[in-house]
Specification:
The protein is α/β, with parallel strands linked by helices. The protein has helices at 12-27, 50-66, 100-108, 141-145, 153-165, 190-198, 218-226, 243-249, 255-261, 283-295, 322-345, and strands at 3-8, 31-32, 40-45, 69-74, 90-92, 123-127, 129-130, 149-150, 170-174, 182-183, 188-189, 205-208, 233-235, 269-276, 298-305, 351-358, 361-364, 369-371, 379-388, 391-396. 32% of the residues lie in helices and 24% in strands. The chain binds iron/sulfur cluster.
């Protein structure tokens, strides 16, 4: 038996990848322990920004000092030279992420009988597709994850059932570019999948991790509205609200399209990603992004200061000074906090169902954060009393 620790960096797909590695080693009879005690370390890396890759390298280097062996997987493992120069006890496992658990298992060996393994998170992530064929000019993801391809609907539905049987109340359908999901052999679209997965016996909540605006259409919205378990929350990356910058980013939509596709979704909580300091972004362009976020009614914004990525169209372009990026990022975050507070204040006095995902905290179905006590992994009914920048302060109803 080998003891191991797991660390993931980056997005929910990276988390799902890391969880699959973890489950494979547990099923092979190995034991997960804290990083200080484990013999081997798994680092599922991210390379979406320079900062994320730097953190991934640091994590691998640190783990190499305290573990006999370190395996680096994930997006960064497919970026040539990203982990060059690290100690000899670091092995980089590139290739298809779906294949990584098997290849890791071959390297680590088997120690015992398969065990029933439950994901550590309260929410279960079920990956429905991998890769992306969009080719945004700044993005390294298609280079390291390959083109878009989907799992079969049957495999996804089996996975959802499995997670619910394990006790998960909420399942998040995840992918690199989720809206590209299409099971052509069975003629199942993402909207069909939402309807089918949403019917899973025992499932309380079904969430989409992130969806490009090009994929937000009437059919998908109808499926979410008609499916009682489907959450009224959409995470829709904007990246920029300026048409010229959007063109340079090769995002294939403009500001007006972004707004139009979100019309009528006032009952949804909308969240987004924004890149600040993209090459050529001047003050006016940045202001367009701030304005669009407000007009679209977006609450939480994940802000990423632009950094050029190797192998992309914009790898040699980076003309916005670091200080300017920093200030714009701070302004965008401040605007996002105000938008969150505004929406949350509107809920004071209301009662909502909160899934407790860590001590004293949880999320409503629309992904609004609440500060409320309750048993971990359970859904409690809570009254909204007041708001802070961390979320709505609630009081759980006694059952
Ligand atoms: S949609 Fe664009 S930003 Fe997102 S993964 Fe694909 S290429 Fe990258």
């Amino acid at each position: 038996m080998t003891t191991f620790s797991v660390r993931f960096l980056g997005c929910k797909v990276s988390y799902t990848d890391a969880d699959a590695l973890r489950e494979r080693l547990l099923a092979d009879g190995h034991e997960e322990t804290s990083a200080g005690e484990a013999e081997i370390a798994l680092v599922n890396s991210c390379c979406v920004t320079r900062e994320a890759l730097g953190k991934s390298r640091q994590a691998a280097a640190k783990a190499a000092r305290t573990h006999k062996h370190v395996y680096v997987t994930g997006c960064g493992a497919n970026l040539e030279g990203a982990f060059a120069g690290l100690p000899e006890n670091v092995t980089v496992l590139g290739g298809e992420s779906a294949d990584a658990p098997r290849r890791l298992a071959d390297l680590v060996g088997r120690a015992g009988d398969a065990l029933a393994v439950r994901s550590k998170r309260v929410r279960a992530f079920v990956q429905i597709q991998d890769g992306c064929s969009f080719g945004c000019s700044y993005c390294v993801v298609p280079l390291v994850r390959g083109p878009a391809r989907s799992k079969s609907a049957e495999a996804v539905l089996t996975d959802v059932r499995h997670r619910v049987e394990q006790g998960h109340k909420e399942v998040v359908l995840s992918g690199i570019n989720l809206g590209c999901f299409h099971d052509s052999a069975a003629a199942v679209s993402l909207a069909d999948l939402v309807r089918e997965a949403g019917k899973t016996l025992g499932l309380e909540r079904l969430r989409l991790s992130s969806i490009e605006i090009n994929h937000v259409g009437a059919e998908l919205i109808a499926a979410i509205r008609e499916t009682p378990t489907a959450c009224r929350h959409l995470h829709v990356p904007l990246q920029s609200g300026d048409d010229e910058i959007l063109r340079a980013m090769k995002r294939h939509y403009d500001a007006a399209t972004f707004l139009r596709r979100l019309e009528g979704l006032e009952d949804f909580n909308l969240t987004s990603d924004v890149i600040v300091g993209f090459p050529g972004e001047d003050e006016a362009a940045f202001q367009h992004t701030l304005d669009l976020i407000e007009r679209a009614g977006i609450t939480k914004v994940h802000v990423f200061p632009y950094s050029p990525r190797p192998g992309t169209t914009t790898e040699d372009a980076d003309d916005v000074p670091a200080q300017v990026k920093k200030k714009r990022a701070a302004r965008m975050r401040e605007s996002s906090i105000n938008a969150c507070l505004g929406r949350w204040r509107g809920k004071i006095g209301m009662e909502e169902s909160i899934l407790i995902d860590r001590p004293g905290r949880g999320y409503a179905s629309d992904y609004t954060p609440w500060l409320v006590d309750g048993p971990l992994g359970e859904i409690v009914q809570a009254h909204a009393k007041s708001v802070t920048e961390q979320g709505i302060i609630g009081k759980a109803r006694r059952s």
